[in-house]
């Protein structure tokens, strides 16, 4: 990034910390990052990293070029109403990472005419392996679009959607997706242990296999389905595991889980939004 805009994180929980960690380890100057949250002692580690920390959201936002909204969706309305007066004066770029809450609700709560990028990130941002689905409202300038993309690409992949509704699907795939893989890892570790491996060995084998499979799929010019078939020798061992997954309807389980995830994102917009 040629210049480092001043960033203010409103909310400094799991997602904000993953993005901050990714940015700082990518060389983003800590003194250009501010963070606010109500429990000041939870911010000690961020302060130790060199960030300016405060309990006062308006103070964090003051003179920030980009304000990253990283509180729970339930807190959005109250927090944005508090920021509206400053937003009208300073006109920063807002980046919201909240699931469900629409850009029109955010704009309304901020008093209107605000440049808003909605981002659906994920926690692997912490290790610069994040995935960000981005949407910009009509007030976002081309320069601000580039700015948002530069900031978030320091944490991983960035892809834009032109239809905001698609962020529900992005949430179901990549926003919540790390949890599905963690669950699968938990299950593989437990099953490996049941077959006699130590917990440590089952964990190492599982995690390296997940890393290897993901890296291979990314680097390969063939689909995951082809790679799967290459592991599955005819009448071999893998075939039995795949047949067992299919008999237990893995594809249906995944589809239903992702539909439930997207439906919750739609419901959050209705329950908590003002559209
Ligand atoms: N976790 C994830 O994997 C992902 C999360 N998101 C989105 O990120 C957002 C945050 O989620 P997550 O980080 O998991 O949640 P957390 O509960 O971990 O973090 C919420 C943060 O908000 C702070 N907070 C609470 N009230 C206020 C307030 N009034 N003003 C300022 N800060 C406040 C909390 O501080 P304190 O601890 O002091 O109460 C905490 O730092 C959500 O909108 C979620 O949809 C999006 C993609 C992935
Ligand atoms: O579970 C949640 O609501 C958030 C949004 C996507 C991932 N975590």
Describe the model.
- The chain folds into 2 domains: 7-167, 3-Layer(aba) Sandwich (Rossmann fold), CATH 3.40.50; 177-266, ProC C-terminal domain-like (ProC C-terminal domain-like fold, Orthogonal Bundle).
- By secondary structure, it is of the alpha/beta class.
- The chain has helices at residues 14-25, 44-49, 57-61, 76-90, 103-109, 142-153, 166-175, 177-194, 199-219, 224-231, 237-247, 250-272, and strands at 7-10, 33-36, 52-54, 66-69, 93-96, 115-120, 130-136, 156-160.
- The mean pLDDT is 96.
- The protein has an 8-stranded mixed β-sheet with strand order 3-2-1-4-5-6-7-8, with helices on both faces.
- The longest helix has 23 residues, at 250-272.
- (2S)-3,4-dihydro-2H-pyrrole-2-carboxylic acid binds at residues 99, 171, 175-176.
- This is Pyrroline-5-carboxylate reductase.
- It holds the Pfam family P5CR_dimer.
- It catalyses: L-proline + NAD(+) = (S)-1-pyrroline-5-carboxylate + NADH + 2 H(+); L-proline + NADP(+) = (S)-1-pyrroline-5-carboxylate + NADPH + 2 H(+).
């Amino acid at each position: 990034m040629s210049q480092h805009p001043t960033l203010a994180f409103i909310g400094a929980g799991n997602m904000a910390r993953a993005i901050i960690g990714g940015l700082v380890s990518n060389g983003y100057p800590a003194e250009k990052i501010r963070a606010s949250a109500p429990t000041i002692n939870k911010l000690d580690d961020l302060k130790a990293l060199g960030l300016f920390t405060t309990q006062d959201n308006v103070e964090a936002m003051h003179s920030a070029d980009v304000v990253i909204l990283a509180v729970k969706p339930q807190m959005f309305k109250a927090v944005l109403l508090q920021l509206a007066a400053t937003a009208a004066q300073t006109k920063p770029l807002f980046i919201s990472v909240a699931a469900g809450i629409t850009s029109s609700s955010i704009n309304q709560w901020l008093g209107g005419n605000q440049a808003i990028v909605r981002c659906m990130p994920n926690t692997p941002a912490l290790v610069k392996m994040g995935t960000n689905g981005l949407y910009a409202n009509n007030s976002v300038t081309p320069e601000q679009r580039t700015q948002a993309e530069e900031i978030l690409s320091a944490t991983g992949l960035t892809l834009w959607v032109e239809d905001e509704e698609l962020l529900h699907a992005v949430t179901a795939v990549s926003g919540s997706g790390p949890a599905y893989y963690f669950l699968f890892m938990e299950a593989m570790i437990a099953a490996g242990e049941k077959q006699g491996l130590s917990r440590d060995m089952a964990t190492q084998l599982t995690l390296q296999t997940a890393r290897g499979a993901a890296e291979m799929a990314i680097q390969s010019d063939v689909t995951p389905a082809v790679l799967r078939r290459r592991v599955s020798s005819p009448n071999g061992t893998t075939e039995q595991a795949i047949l067992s997954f299919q008999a237990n309807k893995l594809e249906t389980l995944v589809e239903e889980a992702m539909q439930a995830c997207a439906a919750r994102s739609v419901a959050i917009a209705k329950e908590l939004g003002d559209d």
